[in-house]
């Protein structure tokens, strides 16, 4: 766990997606940073709606016994994050498809769940 991301992982454990917002210009950004990448102002954590649209994706299936879908999802707040599309027929994933966050467990009891997205 990176220093300064503790709040993000606490929220993930609670089933909430936290993203950073600038206290000065108000813009959201991803990945989390201490200083705003737009104006260098201080940032704070805010809760995301967890809703967005698929910007682009790639299904990894050739020669893979466990196919999966890597995607960039643009959240309602305007930031785009790399993630995985889950809980669906991977042949049905499309660009501009509405999705919502769902947290999936990781290996180990002490590791927090990771944000993934499923079609709405």
UniProtKB/TrEMBL annotation:
Residues 45-104 form the ChsH2 C-terminal OB-fold domain. InterPro entries: ChsH2_C (IPR002878), ChsH2_Znr (IPR022002), NA-bd_OB-fold (IPR012340), Thioester_dehydratase-like (IPR052513). Keywords: DNA-binding. One of its GO terms (molecular function) is DNA binding. It holds the Pfam family zf-ChsH2. It comes from the Bacteria. Residues 9-42 form the ChsH2 rubredoxin-like zinc ribbon domain. This is DNA-binding protein.
